[in-house]
């Protein structure tokens, strides 16, 4: 498993959902209904990509 100390979840709201990209992990994109769901979903998706994240920073963007 590849460790990453810090990852940023860049979140853009569209149509009532948050589209989330993690630039530090190529190919990691998720959607979440609420921002408080993002960290757990990012960690789950990273694990599926054989990556472990230390700190997740949530970065909501203006659409």
TrEMBL record:
It comes from the Bacteria. This is Transcriptional regulator. SUPFAM superfamilies: TTHA1013/TTHA0281-like. InterPro entries: TTHA1013/TTHA0281-like. The lineage of its organism: Bacteria, Bacillati, Actinomycetota, Actinomycetes, Bifidobacteriales.
């Amino acid at each position: 498993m590849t460790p990453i100390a810090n990852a940023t979840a860049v979140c853009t709201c569209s149509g009532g959902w948050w589209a989330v990209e993690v630039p530090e992990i190529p190919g990691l994109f998720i959607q979440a209904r609420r921002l408080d769901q993002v960290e757990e979903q990012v960690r789950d998706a990273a694990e599926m990509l054989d990556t472990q994240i230390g700190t997740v920073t949530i970065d909501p963007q203006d659409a």
